Structures are given as C-alpha cells and as structure tokens.
Amino acid sequence: LLEVLRVDRALLLAAHVGDLLVELAEVRRRGHRVDFPSYRPGELTAIGAALAGRDGDGWDEDAAEELASICTHVVREGWIDELGNGRFIRTLYEKSCAYRDLRLSLLREPPGREDLATLRLPDLVQAYGELIDGRG
After folding, report:
1. Any bridge partners for residue 78, and if so which?
2. Rounded to the nearest 5°, which phi and psi values hold at 119?
3. Pair type for strands 118-119 and 58-59
C-alpha cells in the first residue's frame, strides 16, 4: 500500500509539474503573470508542522498554538502574499531553528536530544518579530 501511495504521489506530482510547465510556457508566450492562491491559516500551520517533522523537529505546545495564531494573523492582515506566502512559513521555521540553536548555545549544560529537536515559543516569537519588522 505504501508503495502504491508513493507511485500515485509521483504520478500526481509529475502530472502537476507537466501542467505547470505547459502553463508557464503559455505565460511566457503571452507575457502574463501567474497568480497562485494564498495559503489559508490552517494550511500554513500544517506546512510549518510538516517542515519541522521532515527535519526531525517539532513545535512545543505553546509554540504550536502561537504558530497557528501567527498564520491566522498574517492572513487576516493581508500580509501573507507580501511576506512570500509559502516562503513565509518556510523562512519562519528556518529562523525559529536558528533562534533555538542560539538559545541552546547559551546553556551551561549540553542540551539533550529533546532540546535539540524542539522549537519553543521564544524561538518562534523572535523569528516572527524579525520577519515582520516594521509592520503593525
């Protein structure tokens, strides 16, 4: 079953990429811009969780709640496209990791495995502050 799912995803991805390439060729020929729909808050939150999970990380409970709140806020304020839509959540995750690493580097004791793989609220808040610097 797992192998079938992998094949189905690969075929779906290949079909999507093929359609996208045809569409991009048409855009190039016509000189139009392709508008991709903005992600909704739940989708952004899920992407953030998936990115962390893919890398063996996770958001603690407080950070996960705040991540959902942040995603809702940037969409409601109409900032998501200016912030890069999907790129926003990826950058937020990457910056959160950087702030976690900085926080852990300041510990007197070596961090444990859980510390190394957990993104906490202060990591997220600092990353978000950096990304929205100058906005309300």
Report:
1. none
2. -95, 125
3. parallel
Please report the sign of the dihedral spanned by the C-alpha atoms of residue 96, residue 100, residue 103, residue 106.
negative
Which H helix or E strand runs over 118? strand 118-119
Report the C-alpha gap between 44 and 87 in whole angstroms: 10
Backbone angles phi, psi at 43, to 5 degrees: -70, -45
Residue-wise pLDDT for 78-102, tens only, equals: 999 999 999 999 999 999 999 999 9
**Residue 58 phi, psi (nearest 5):** -155, 155
pTM over 0.90: no
Separation CA 67–CA 75 (nearest Å): 12
